[in-house]
UniProtKB/TrEMBL annotation:
GO terms for cellular component: plasma membrane. The lineage of its organism: Bacteria, Bacillati, Bacillota, Bacilli, Bacillales. It holds the Pfam family dCache_1. It comes from the Bacteria. This is Sensor histidine kinase.
């Protein structure tokens, strides 16, 4: 497929697929967000209704405490039963009593009247003692049956001192002067107990007008047709609006938790129920509303999302056509210039004044062609220089070969004439040149390097005689390793001329070889004059400097440190900065030079580049 069509397809995918994905994600997210918002808002409203109901019930609870703490009420609760076991009516409690007792009863009525006046939502209050006697300002029994046999009194007596919300009364013997219906009031009760024995002395019953309960839930609307209703623990409705969507909510629909949400089908319509239970009253405040009301809001948002996706896709199609053309056309032109360059025509191409990446690519292509032409010319120049260097190297090698052959002839002539000392000296010098040439190779076996240094020491010992002693201690298993040639001779020469020569009496040079952390260490140690601290610091500084810096800025490079610095430079150029010379010296005690060399068990096909030194080191460690 041509690049232009690939770009069009790619741009369409990047425009349409994310837009469709975003639409689906937004749709899903909006549904979740709307649900959470509706649920959260509804739960907040339900919580507010619950708080209002709890506040009203807490006021009633506090009212029962105030009534029970009244001294006259306590005295009334402590009175014994009189008569034949039946409870006394309100009128009988006033007959046969003294004037002070009548005043006390009148005071209690006035107290109850004060509560109903202060809280007009109270329909009535009745006090009943354990003997069945009662006092009330608004309530009275329908029959002469003792009030202690009533279910509400038995419920209060079963929970001493506990405030209990009874809900709407059912088949109760008590009524009021206003004759409220059972579905118009809500009853609460609390038993009064003796402080010392804990025995139940009586009970306080309060009827609350239902409109005070409905007032907290009536003004709460959920959506267009949703509402809030209140049910008791048995599922009976405490409050519901005039035209509810459901008359009765079964208890089995509610979960075990204090709050929750569930959806049910009622008369062919899906209703969403959210409820919250009150631990104080035991009632449930339930929010009821149709799910279609929240779905309509979601569909409105979905319409806008679909419209947005359509516009984005239309715009993406138009933009992809223009954008693919603007990118593909200059790329095709670049391809034609590249094909022309493949044929050998390296002339620069013509480009427009575009300042974007395509224009920069064209400018870079022209610069690349110019650089290629320069590199071709430079390569031709280097090839000519390389041929000239090879010619000069060939000419330089002619002289050592001629000298080596001449020395070999002199060696055999001296041996023939019986001049053994001259023969040995010439033989050692001949071997020195032969190993130094090494057929032009840069790496030689360690035993050849040791043979080379032995020939050199033989010549030096002929000169210095008893003043120079040398010991070579290199294990046989290391002598087949390959090393960079001419490593030891410059360092041994330094040890002789700057160490042994500068001390009194004979000197000793020790050459050792060993393996340390996967590397070959060659140590040249003498007991000569050593170095001063300043000279040692200067040498360490020179050893850390690169070769080009030494050539340009250090006059010591051509002085007496040339041999050691040359070995250091060759080691680092061949193997990298991890290898080289370690130097330690003390005045009057001698100098120790250690060569850190990689393990090379085979002759490399080419000199090791610096960037391969680490790999070679790892291989040596494995061996």
């Amino acid at each position: 497929m041509p690049l232009r069509y690939q770009l069009m397809l790619l741009f369409l995918l990047f425009a349409i697929v994310p837009s469709v994905g975003m639409g689906v994600l937004v749709n899903w997210t909006v549904e979740r967000v709307v649900e959470r918002q509706v649920e959260g808002h509804t739960m907040q409203l339900i919580g507010k209704v619950n708080e209002a109901l709890n506040t009203k019930m807490e006021n009633l609870q506090n009212m029962t405490y105030l009534i029970a703490f009244n001294p006259d009420v306590n005295a009334f609760m402590d009175e014994k039963l009189i008569g034949d076991g039946g409870g006394r009516t309100e009128s009988s409690t006033t007959e046969g009593h003294s004037e002070s007792e009548q005043n006390r009863l009148y005071g209690m009525k006035q107290t109850l009247q004060g509560f109903t006046t202060l809280y007009p939502e109270i329909a009535g209050i009745v006090l009943v003692n354990s003997g069945g006697d009662y006092i009330s300002n608004e309530m009275y029994p329908r029959t002469d049956q003792r009030l202690t046999r009533e279910d509400w009194y038995q419920n209060a007596a079963a929970q001493p001192g506990i405030f209990t919300v009874l809900g709407q009364p059912q088949e109760r013997n008590m009524t009021t002067h206003v004759r409220y219906k059972n579905d118009e009031i809500v009853s609460v009760v609390r038993s009064v107990t003796d402080e010392t024995s804990g025995a139940v002395k009586g009970a306080v019953l309060i009827d609350l007008k239902l409109r005070s309960v409905s007032q907290a839930a009536r003004n709460v609307t959920l959506g267009k047709s949703g509402y809030v209703m209140v049910t008791d623990a048995n599922g009976q409705s405490v409050y519901k609006p005039e035209h509810p969507l459901i008359e009765h909510i079964p208890v089995s629909w509610f979960n075990a938790g204090e709050s929750g949400t569930f959806t049910k089908q009622v008369d062919g319509e899906t209703l969403l129920f959210m409820y919250q239970s009150s631990t104080f009253t035991g009632w449930r405040t339930v929010g009821v509303f149709p799910t279609k009301e929240s779905i309509s809001e979601v569909r409105q948002i979905q319409f806008y999302v679909v419209s947005f996706v359509f516009v984005v896709c239309l715009f993406g199609l138009s933009a992809s056509l223009w954008f693919s053309r603007s990118i593909a056309q200059p790329i095709f032109r670049l391809m034609s210039y590249m094909r022309r360059a493949e044929t050998g025509n390296l002339n620069a191409g013509r480009w427009s004044d575009r300042a974007d990446e395509i224009g920069m690519l064209g400018s870079s292509f022209n610069r690349m062609l110019s650089r290629i032409r320069q590199l071709i010319l430079l390569n031709e120049l280097r090839e000519r220089q390389k041929r000239d260097a090879e010619m000069r190297s060939l000419q330089e090698h002619i002289k050592p070969h001629f000298l080596y052959n001449t020395l070999d002839t002199i060696h055999w002539m001296a041996r023939k004439e019986g001049a053994d000392g001259v023969s040995d000296m010439v033989g050692a010098l001949s071997r020195l040149f032969r190993i130094g040439l090494s057929k032009g190779q840069d790496y030689i076996p360690l035993h050849s390097e040791l043979e080379h240094i032995s020939s050199y020491l033989q010549i030096q010992q002929t000169r210095y005689r008893d003043r120079l002693r040398c010991t070579v201690d290199v294990p046989d298993d290391l002598q087949n390793l390959y090393v960079l040639k001419l490593l030891l001779q410059p360092l041994v020469e330094n040890a002789i001329y700057h160490g042994i020569k500068g001390r009194r009496g004979p000197g000793h040079i020790v050459i050792k070889g060993n393996l340390h952390q996967g590397r070959l260490h060659l140590t040249i140690q003498d007991d000569g004059a050593g170095m001063t601290k300043e000279r040692l610091e200067e040498m360490l500084r020179l050893l850390d400097m690169p070769m080009e810096s030494l050539e340009s800025s250090s006059p010591e490079w051509t002085g007496k440190s040339y041999g050691m610095l040359n070995v250091q430079a060759r080691l680092r150029l061949s193997f990298g900065g991890d290898y080289g010379i370690l130097l330690d010296s003390r005045p009057g005690e001698g100098t120790c030079v250690t060569i850190v060399h990689p393990l090379m068990r085979e002759l490399p096909a080419a000199p090791l580049p610096q960037n391969e030194t680490r790999d070679h080191q790892d291989e040596s460690k494995k061996e």
